[in-house]
Amino acid sequence: MVVSKYRWKYHVLLGVLIIIMDMYGDYIYKQKNSWADYFEYPLFLYTLAMYTTFFCIYILNYKILCPFILSRKRILQYISGVILLVFLYAGIRYLLEEVLLYSITGLHNYGDNYRHFRYYVFDNSYYASKSLLFSTAIYLFFRFVDHQDAIHRLKIENKKAELNLLKSQLDPHFLFNTLNSFYSDLIQSEPKIATDIHRLSGLLRFVTYETQQETISLQKDLKFISDYIFFYKKRYEDNLAVDYQVHGTVANQKIPAMLLIHFIENVFKHGIVNDSSAPATITITIHSKNLEIHTKNKKALSEKYLEEGIGYMSIHQRLSILFKNDFTLYQSEQKSYFEAYLKIPI
C-alpha cells in the first residue's frame, strides 16, 4: 500500500509543517523584522536544540510507547509513560541548552529565576505535549489505515478460499445425504461403524460450513481437532503414538478459523506418529486472555520442515493481519525433532 510504503515521508512532511507553523507564529506574535532572524547565531543553535528534543520524544512515543503500550489498551501504563517522556523532554533540553550550548556560547536560554526544577519542567511540558500529541495522532492515523488494509486483505483471502473450496469439493449436500444414508442403513446392524460415519459427517460439515466465518467457537474447533485425531487413530489401528492434551477452561472464546489445525496437520503429515518410544505431543493451554498451542514430534527423515512444515510464512502473515505484534510464533528443528509454538490473545 502506498501509505505504508512511503510512511516516512508523512513524518517528514509533518515535521516541516510543525517547524514552519512555529516560526510563523513567532514571527507574528514576536514581530520579527525578518525570517533571517531565526538563523542568527546563537539563536539558531538553541532552536536546533529544541527541535532535536522535540523529535526525540516524538520518535520514542511513536516507536515505543504507542505500539507496545497504547495499542494494547494499557491506558494507565501509557499515561505513566507520557509523564516519563515529559520529564525526559525537560532533561534532554536542559542538557543540550543549559549545559552543552552554555559551554559553547556562555549564554543560558532560561534566566536565573526560571532555571529551577519546577518551573523548567512545567514550561517544557507544553512543548513536550505538542510532540506527544502529534506523534500519537499520526500513529493512530496509520493504525486506522493498517486496520482498513487488513480488513480488505482478509476479505480478498476469504473470497479466494471460498472460490477454491467451490472448485475442489463435491456438492456437499450430495455427500452429506450419502453419509446419512449409510448411517441409517448401518445403525441397527453395525452401530459402531454407523457412529464413526456420523462423526465423519460432522467433521466434513465443520470444514464445509463453519470455517467460512473469520472466527469460530473454540469449543467447536477443539471438537474438530479431537475428531481429526480420532480418524488418524482409526487409520493406525490404535498404534497411534500421539499425546494430545487440552488444559484450561473452554467457555465462549472465539479464535480465527482453521488456525490451530495447521499445527495438528503438521504433526500428522510430516512427522512420525507411530513410534511409541518417541510419541508426538500436542498441548493446547487456555488462559483467561490468551491461548497457546505447542507441538513436538519426531520428524520424518525425508521432510524439510523449515521449508514445508506448517506454512510458517503464510501463518505469520495471517497472524500479523489479525493481531499486529500481539502474538508469539516460532518453530525450531533440532536433530531428529521438530517443535512449533503459538500464543494468541482470545
Polypeptide structure, described:
The protein has two domains: 2-148, no CATH class; 229-345, Heat Shock Protein 90, CATH 3.30.565. With 346 residues, the protein is an alpha+beta fold. It has ten helices and eight strands. The longest helix has 52 residues, at 117-168. The strands form two sheets. Strands 2, 4, 5, 6, 7 and 8 form a six-stranded mixed sheet that branches. Strands 1-3 form a two-stranded antiparallel sheet.
Provide key terms for this protein.
346 residues, alpha+beta, Heat Shock Protein 90, 2 domains
- Count of β-strands: 8
Q: Into which percent range does the helicity of residues fall?
A: 55-70%
The overall pLDDT, averaged over residues, is 82
Tell me what portion of residues adopts beta-strand conformation.
5-15%
Given the structure, what is the number of helices? 10
- Ranges where pLDDT stays below 50 over 5 or more residues in a row are 305-310
Described by strand count, sense and barrel closure, the largest sheet is: 6 strands, mixed
Rg (C-alpha, Å)? 30 Å
The string of secondary-structure elements, in order, is HHHHHHHEHEEHEEEHEE
Distance between the termini: 28 Å
